[in-house]
Predict the 3D structure of the following.
Amino acid sequence: MDYLWLKALHVAAIITWVGGMLAMSVAARTIPALGAERKTAIATLRKWDQRITSPAMGFAWIVGVTLVFMGGWHSAIWFMIKFVLVLALSALHGVQGGALRRMGNDPAMAAPAVLRQGPAMTITIVLLIAILVIVKPFQ
């Protein structure tokens, strides 16, 4: 497949992944404290994460690794920094999913800090990644 097509698919997957993470963080903060609405809201968020956000993350990883080897960037310093940031973003996604699962199991649990601070952390990491990819410093 052509490099530019893969790049476009990679960007689309990242937008879907990051959008899902932001939605999970913001929506989890507004979930009612108790009741059937809470259970439904959490189940809906988890279903979205399992069916859309997580597969988008996996696809972004697969296409991203392909692009790295097509571009020959695996030894570039900017890429190594980006790789660590993408690992951090993936870990944040996993931690957010776990927090949402725990909220679903504990009817009295409020949204933990990882969900409350999730949007700021996600946007910061994505901003740093975008700068590294576009500017490619440390070449």
About this structure: Helices lie at 3-29, 36-71, 77-105, 113-116, 118-135. The two ends are 27 Å apart (CA to CA).
